[in-house]
Specification:
It is a single chain. By secondary structure, the protein is mainly α. The chain contains two helices and no strands. Helix 1 crosses helix 2. The longest helix has 11 residues. It is globular and about 25 Å long.
């Protein structure tokens, strides 16, 4: 995960990758240890509204 923005832009239909909400969801899902396809899958789920 790269740099995280300070405020969510609420872009539709998916949140942006640098959204703080997405970062929080990835952290809760334990995606810090993931890489490759498993990280991409977790990111896809985290970006859904």
């Amino acid at each position: 995960m790269g740099k995280v923005k300070k405020k969510c832009c609420r872009s539709k239909p998916k949140r942006c990758k640098s959204c703080p909400v997405v970062a929080m969801r990835l952290h809760k899902a334990g995606a810090d240890d993931l890489s490759g396809k498993s990280f991409q899958r977790a990111l896809k789920i985290a970006r859904i509204y």
